[in-house]
Design goal:
Elements (H helix, E strand, L loop, with lengths): L1 H6 L19 H52 L5 H12 L3 H5 L8 E4 L4 E8 L2 E9 L2 E7 L14 H5 L19 E7 L4 E8 L6 E4 L5 E2 L3 E8 L2 E6 L5 E7 L3 E6 L2 E4 L12 H12 L12 H20 L14 H12 L3
Parallel strand pairs: 6-12
Antiparallel strand pairs: 1-4, 2-3, 4-5, 6-9, 7-8, 7-10, 10-11, 12-13
Helix pairs in contact: 2-3
Length: 352
């Protein structure tokens, strides 16, 4: 019967072929497969660890960039350069994070900070011991050091090593370091604040009693003369007349020159708010003056070459007077008010 054939192992199917049998895995085969899987997992483990380290390092790099920008904004907002003990607080205030997060990095290691030992900030004296801004600004740099691997050795992060750390090439460790961590785990944040300063100048011609005020500080009297200083961008400058009345109050973000004359303050020089170039008539008068130059009184004549040479020397004197040690940049970018230009012409006409 058909049912008997199912019980008979030697029976053939209706096609004439013996039935298929299901064969399982032997212990030896299973052991071999498990060994291969274990080997592959062992080989991939370092790669996974490196990937995790790389992700942590990339996250720390982004956090350090955020701290650098927060530090810049806070320095400009407060108008002061902090020392090392206050720098971390500036960073925290700039990014809105607590001090505990600022001092410990994503990898759980402390962040270290250095201030350039060659930092130079000299105040600008104006009168009676008072000062406004800085006359000399140099090496205003800070450095953040962070490791997402082994903790850094404080003995390695000292002011004497600042320049070597600043110049450090990514993927390398400074010579002589005790730190034995991996170079790729080191993250540096460089902060150069020199670009955050702006030059501000002012000249007082007459009407003693004029004064200058920064932010909400006291009004500082300024005597006659020309002064120049560096201020942090975002500083509020107020210029007061002899009565203590504010004539100009503005936030400086670009190089600015002020002038006080006949009891009034106004912008002057390159950065006048309403620049007016000399008119055609002004240049015509200049040309008449140059044509009237007598290079040889005995002859009473002048050659075109002599006229052009005089014009070249005169134009150079004009540019030099306008710059006055304050204006920077190409000559073609020098734009001045018409009144300022006329005053300078009158002064140069009287110059032998």
């Amino acid at each position: 019967m058909k049912t008997d054939s199912l019980m008979d192992p030697t029976a053939r199917s209706e096609t004439g072929h013996p039935p298929r049998t299901v064969r399982g895995w032997t212990l030896v085969e299973m052991a071999g497969v498990l060994a291969v899987l274990g080997l592959l997992m062992g080989l991939s483990a370092p790669t996974l660890e490196d990937l995790t380290r790389r992700e942590v390092r990339d996250a720390e790099i982004q956090q350090v960039i955020r701290l650098v920008e927060g530090f810049r904004s806070e320095v400009c907002r407060r108008g002061i350069i902090p020392d090392e003990s206050e720098a971390m607080r500036f960073m925290g205030a700039g990014v809105g994070l607590p001090d505990s997060i600022i001092r410990i990095n994503i990898g759980g290691q402390p962040r270290l900070l250095l201030r350039d030992p060659a930092l130079r900030l000299e105040r600008t004296p104006v009168s009676s011991g008072a000062s406004v801004g800085w006359s000399k600004v140099g090496n205003v740099r800070f450095l953040i050091l962070s490791s997402v691997g082994d903790p850094l050795e404080p003995e390695d992060v000292v002011p004497e090593r600042f320049q070597a750390l600043w110049d450090l090439v990514p993927g390398r460790v400074p010579e002589g370091w005790r730190w034995t961590g991996r170079a790729e785990d080191l993250v540096l944040g460089r902060i150069d604040l020199r670009s955050e300063f702006v030059e501000v100048g002012w000249s007082v011609i007459d009407a003693p009693g004029a004064s200058i005020q920064l932010e909400d500080g006291p009004a500082i009297p300024v005597g006659a003369g020309r002064f120049q200083c560096c201020l942090l961008k975002g500083t509020t400058v107020a210029l007061l007349d002899h009565r203590g009345v504010v004539a100009i109050r503005e936030v400086v973000d670009t190089p600015t020159l002020y002038r006080q004359e006949q009891g009034q303050w106004h912008r002057a020089g390159l950065w006048t708010p309403e620049p007016a170039r000399p008119s055609v008539e002004d240049f015509a008068r200049m040309a008449d003056s140059f044509l009237g130059i007598q290079t040889d009184p005995s002859l009473g004549v002048v050659t075109p070459a002599e006229v052009w040479g005089s014009f070249a020397r005169y134009s150079g004197a004009v540019v030099g007077r306008f710059r006055g040690g304050i204006h920077q940049g190409p000559d073609e970018e020098l734009v001045v008010s018409q009144n300022e230009f006329q005053r300078l012409l009158r002064g140069l006409w009287a110059t032998p």
